[in-house]
Specification:
320 residues; alpha+beta; 6-stranded mixed beta sheet; 5-stranded mixed beta sheet
């Protein structure tokens, strides 16, 4: 057997595995871990497209065409979800801005205790009006310092070990709540209301279950939707969703609650991949609140996530 035939056979076998991964990344597959593949949809489809090019060069042309079509279909499906989100965001951005504020969201990593002071310094210098942190233990020893700038706080009121989700604000916080999601996500949702330009705006911090823990992430999203529906009017929710905005559960959540993303999807995890990572930490807003910009913090400061800073604008109603 010629070497080129052996290479073609090996590429074909690889294409079969890649095709199975594409199915899991693009469609609902009731298997453990399938939700994780959905967040990696573009990360799976683009290399598979490259595999199709290689197969074509190795003269496995019909097989290459089939693989390329499958990868292109997956990319198109993901692009459709992203494009629809962005089109709705652009439409919601019309109208005069009557108020604005800044939100910072950051998963600090529980074991990142040595960087607590640096992280507190960054928060104090950020200019953020509302701060949402996950795995917040590194900040437990810094709470008194932070209280000088952020006197309104929900969470981290017991011990360092219990200090996971935390919501801080320099603006007065009303209607504060600490809620649970699934059994795996106790006290993983915090809500409050601030006043922007004389109007109530709801703020929510969330830390959702990892997608490979059976169906707990699905339960999280269903309960989260109900909790958000209890708050009418503009709302911003930020935190560690453990899923990308184009994954099935997040698309369902945003479609059913009217939440919209910012103008980009900064990669936040894993930090070693930089901009090639996955945006599993996110900020969403419900009109008339609109995210004007969202950026990843340049320095993860010892965390395995990159934090996000978003500027939000409250829009006046557009006349008919």
């Amino acid at each position: 057997m010629r070497l080129v035939d052996e290479i073609r056979g090996g590429l074909t076998a690889l294409a079969v595995v890649a095709f199975a991964a594409l199915i899991g990344a693009t469609f609902h597959v009731p298997l453990p871990g399938a939700a994780l593949l959905q967040s990696l949809q573009f990360h799976v489809a683009l290399p598979v497209l490259g595999l199709a090019v290689l197969m074509f060069l190795m003269r496995a042309r019909w097989r290459a065409v089939l693989v390329a079509l499958a990868a292109s279909a997956s990319l198109a499906e993901g692009a459709w979800d992203v494009g629809r989100q962005q089109w709705n965001r652009i439409e919601a951005s019309a109208g005069e801005t009557i108020g604005s504020f800044k939100v910072l969201s950051f998963n600090l990593l529980f074991s990142n205790l040595g960087n607590g002071e640096r992280i507190a310094d960054m928060i104090l210098a950020s200019g953020a009006d509302v701060v949402m942190t996950m795995e917040s233990g590194p900040l437990f020893a810094q709470l008194d310092r932070l209280a000088a700038e952020y006197p309104f706080r929900v969470g981290c009121d017991r011990t360092e070990d219990d200090c996971d989700l935390m919501l801080m604000s320099r603006l007065p916080l009303d209607r504060t709540e600490v809620r649970g999601l699934s059994w795996m996500s106790r006290e993983r949702l915090m809500l409050g209301t601030v006043t922007i330009a004389g109007q109530p705006v709801h703020v929510a911090a969330v830390h959702m279950t990892k997608p490979y823990f059976d169906d707990f992430a699905v339960v999280d999203s269903r309960i989260l939707r109900r909790r958000l529906d209890e708050r009418t009017g503009p709302i911003v929710i930020a935190g560690d969703f453990n899923a990308a905005p184009w994954s099935e559960e997040i698309v369902w959540l945003t479609n059913t609650t009217g939440l919209l993303p910012g103008p980009g999807y900064p990669a936040t995890w894993p930090v070693a991949l930089g901009p090639a990572g996955v945006p599993i930490d996110n900020v969403f807003a419900r009109p008339p609140l609109v995210i004007e910009s969202v950026e990843a913090l340049p320095d993860p400061m010892g965390s395995n996530h990159r934090g996000l800073v978003a500027t939000l604008a409250l829009k006046a109603p557009v006349p008919d």
